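Q: what does this look like with S-adenosylmethionine bound?
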Amino acid sequence: MLEYDLIANWYSTDRGATAGVSEALAVAATLPAQSRMLDVGCGNGVPITEALVNAGHRVVGLDSSAGMLAHFRANLPATPVVRADVRDCPFASGSFDAAISWGMLFHLPRSDQDRALANVSRVLKPGAPFLFTATEIEGADEGGITGTMNGVTFHYYAVASYRTLLAAHGMALVDVHDEPGVSTYYLARKWPFDAANPPGTKLSSSHSARIVVALDGPTDHFRQ
Ligand SMILES: C[S@@+](CC[C@H](N)C(=O)[O-])C[C@H]1O[C@@H](n2cnc3c(N)ncnc32)[C@H](O)[C@@H]1O
């Protein structure tokens, strides 16, 4: 994404070290060691890709910004990363045990989020979780809004219902967690899976205990 090329150096110094990390690790903790995880819109890889690698998983980064990826390769030289657009995700179907996407989806208009989610769903294995940040507003304006980061204009788009959009691509929305002032997190899972006993969920660890297993509708927060 060209706009991120323009702010790649600034982003490295401005992005906080914690946003999204505990949520990503909560998902990672539900997976077997060495699981294949895709970080969609991985940026420079710090802190989220790095945390997933350190948690013992085989992580692959994907991002469309050459500038952000230059930082990624410097930060995580041993971690595979591809320059690609999530709308045309260049991986084989069923390649990943989980996917994470922090701070990316809301840059895409709704029709492009549709394409992005179709691709993420395609590359996930059945039962795999997908944790992403985004904004949901009923009756969301297709035109979105603009904002600036370090003087560069960015576009942001909300979606009316992720439950509906995810369902169109074979995924279930299993929870929504709002961290005020930081992000709203959406946890989805690719069908088919045993809804009463989602794959890999271990409620004994404090991290994974935050992953909701109930599927009767989104809750305000991940279970504490
Ligand atoms: C706010 S940054 C988040 C980076 C990283 N996930 C983090 O937690 O710091 C958004 C990233 O999404 C990437 N991005 C935006 N649109 C994309 C697309 N269509 N395909 C792949 N990456 C995209 C941008 O290049 C940028 O690196």
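Residues 1, 4, 15, 20, 41-43, 48, 62-65, 68, 85-87, 102-104, 107-108 surround S-adenosylmethionine (CB under 6 Å). The first helix runs from residue 2 to 14.
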